[in-house]
Design a protein that fits this description.
The complex is a heterodimer. By secondary structure, chain A is an all-alpha fold. Chain A is globular and about 70 Å long. Chain A has a single domain, classed as Formate dehydrogenase/DMSO reductase domain (Formate dehydrogenase/DMSO reductase fold), CATH 1.20.1630.10. Chain A starts with a helix and ends in a 12-residue tail after the last helix. Helices cover 67% and strands 2% of the residues of chain A. By secondary structure, chain B is of the alpha+beta class. Chain B has one domain: Alpha-Beta Plaits (2-Layer Sandwich). Chain B has seven helices and eleven strands. In chain B, the strands form five sheets. Chain B has a three-stranded mixed β-sheet with strand order 10-1-11. A two-stranded antiparallel sheet of chain B has the order 2-3. In chain B, strands 4-5 form a two-stranded antiparallel ribbon. The longest helix of chain B has 12 residues. Chain B is elongated. Classes of the chains: A mainly alpha, B alpha+beta. At the A-B interface, helix 3, helix 7, strand 1 and helix 8 of A face strand 3, strand 4, strand 5, helix 2 and helix 3 of B. Strand 1 of chain A pairs antiparallel with strand 4 of chain B.
């Protein structure tokens, strides 16, 4: 699948934003500090930037409001509805944190639930597509949710360190989520080696005669289908990129998280800030691979 | 509404494509583009039509596949590989994944005849339906920013201003070898249903659980070259009557 930058940025930014918003909503941080107030703005900013970027690839963005109507059948529509609905508790929480320095437990909990459900809807857009076998598994939402949790708790630990607050529980939670997210991702990635359920033989129905090979394409140049669905990354590069994503997005942040409780607040904030930057870079690479490594069933008609 | 019809549609209009007959001439591709660029919805645009990177929107495309039997040879006169020309357009699936993923309600399956259509005024051009389709039946028109797909020439098949023989999809009407047939696949007495039953018509990618309406008829078995009797026998011993006389006369020279 073609790795569109707008979608990669959207899923990465919304994962970070919803994760942080959930951590803030659950009251892990004390909003009396300026750092924590700033964290609310960062969370809303990441979510909004992600959602806006997701509209960039639309052919007719002026009609985007129509995407809120088909929540009964479409995961994309559900994501749209829930992302807007979740803004209500998140904005109320942010308002009270910013202007009154208060955390509202019930509104915060509602916001956190909204964050989880929205990320789940995003992941189900991909997981519900049988035509892309790599995505068509419950491990896809598991990865998205665990990554959002890992990102959010890491960002939370960073802001806590900046605010000079103790964040032992949050750091512990983050260590668990980081480990679980990358372990799930490794299992998810093993599925890429699985036999494809659709083959050129099943796609043409000619398997009863023999082995099917594309002889001539319908067109001499690329078309929408080959541009959109025909992207393939070389295995050797994919493996290297995955190693980069794992180290930058997982192992180094994990080590810095582990180290942070023994550091002073300032050093911890610097270490965790570095972890946030590396983790974001790693997540962008991971999301790029999520698309670039996925093979679409239509490519059975194109010999790719 | 992008929920699929709750009941099976009373009619299942669709195509039956005979892979034994198709010669891969692409006439259906041209006639499809010609009819549909001026009919239903936005025109089927081309990008750089006279440039090096020519590309465009089509609702019907012909692939050509080489099929090699087990242990068969590929090359030259002894080869057993056969070439199958393979027309592909929307299969108007009963369980159409392209419809249910649509966030806007632009994609829908008609409850009366089962045709899958896009209401282009509602389409936001997100492209998710094209991702959901395993067959590559949907192509985004880059110029209009909306999704295009085969309409089964809905503006022909019910069009009473056309002659009755023209009230079939453009590809069916134009096919010079009669490789494409149009009809109601829900009616077991229709010509297309009988054809499917007699020739063993099949679904593409049944494992995708889309329940396509369109069916494909398999190529008939082909005689292998080495099994064909030699054309001219050198031995004339069996000749009788006139041929025996010609044989005798020619022998004298």
């Amino acid at each position: 699948m073609h790795p569109a930058y707008s979608i990669i940025f959207f899923t990465t930014a919304s994962g970070l934003g919803y994760g942080l918003a959930a951590v803030l909503g659950l009251g892990f941080l004390d909003p009396s500090s300026m750092w924590v107030r700033f964290a609310h703005i960062v969370a809303l900013g990441l979510i909004s930037a992600g959602l806006l970027s997701s509209t960039l690839h639309l052919g007719n963005p002026q009609r985007a409001w129509r995407a809120l109507t088909q929540w009964r059948s479409s995961w994309l529509s559900r994501e749209g509805v829930l992302s807007l609905a979740t803004f209500v508790p998140l904005c109320i929480s942010a308002w009270f944190a910013l202007f009154e320095g208060r955390h509202l437990p019930l509104v915060g909990l509602l916001g956190a639930i909204g964050c989880v459900v929205t990320v789940y809807c995003t992941s189900m857009i991909y997981a519900s597509l049988r035509a892309v076998q790599a995505w068509n598994t419950q491990l896809t939402p598991a990865c998205y949710l665990l990554y959002a949790g890992a990102s959010g708790s890491l960002l939370g630990a960073f802001f806590a360190a900046g605010a000079g607050q103790s964040a032992v529980v949050l750091t512990g939670l983050s260590l668990v989520l980081f480990t679980a997210a990358w372990a799930t991702k490794l299992v998810w990635r093993l599925r890429l080696r699985e036999k494809q359920i659709s083959t050129p033989e099943s796609a043409t129905g000619l398997g009863a005669i023999g082995t099917v090979r594309l002889f001539e394409r319908p067109h001499t140049n690329e078309n929408y289908l080959t541009r959109e669905m025909g992207y393939r990354v070389a295995r050797k590069h994919a493996d290297k990129l995955f190693a980069i994503a794992l180290i930058a997005g997982g192992l180094v942040p994990l080590a810095l998280l582990f180290l942070s409780p023994v550091l002073g607040h300032t050093q911890a904030a610097i270490a965790l800030g570095l972890a946030v930057v590396l983790h974001t870079f790693g997540m962008l690479v991971e999301r790029w691979l999520f698309f670039a490594e996925a093979r679409h069933a239509v490519m059975n008609y194109y010999g790719r | 509404m992008t929920c699929l019809p709750s009941q099976p549609t009373p009619k299942k209009l669709g195509l039956v494509i005979d892979l034994d007959v198709c010669v891969g001439c692409h006439a259906c591709v041209v006639s499809c583009k010609e009819w549909n660029t001026g009919g239903y919805g936005a025109a089927l645009s081309d990008q750089e039509p006279y440039g090096a990177e020519v590309s465009g929107t089509f609702l019907n495309r012909i692939h050509s596949f080489e099929v090699i039997p087990d242990g068969g040879e590929v090359a030259a006169e002894k080869g057993h590989a056969r070439l199958v020309h393979f027309p592909k357009s929307c299969l108007h699936c009963e369980n159409a994944p392209c419809v249910t993923v649509c966030p806007t309600g632009a994609s829908y399956k008609r409850a009366d005849d089962g045709i899958v259509l896009v209401d282009e005024d509602m389409c936001i051009g997100c492209g998710l339906c094209a991702w959901a389709c395993p067959y590559g039946a949907r192509e985004m028109d880059v110029s209009a920013g909306v999704m295009k797909k085969c309409t089964l020439c809905v503006d022909r098949i019910y069009n009473e201003t056309l002659e009755e023989e023209d009230r079939v999809p453009s590809c069916v009407r134009t096919c010079p070898t009669n490789a494409r047939h149009f009809g109601d696949l829900a009616d077991p007495t229709s010509a297309v249903s009988i054809m499917v039953a007699e020739r063993g018509g099949y679904d593409l990618m049944p494992e995708q659980q889309t329940l396509p309406v369109n069916k494909y008829l398999p190529p008939r078995p082909k005689t292998r070259l080495e099994d064909v009797a030699p054309l001219a026998a050198a031995d004339t011993a069996g000749a009788k009557g006139f041929f025996a006389w010609v044989d005798a006369v020619l022998e004298r020279f």
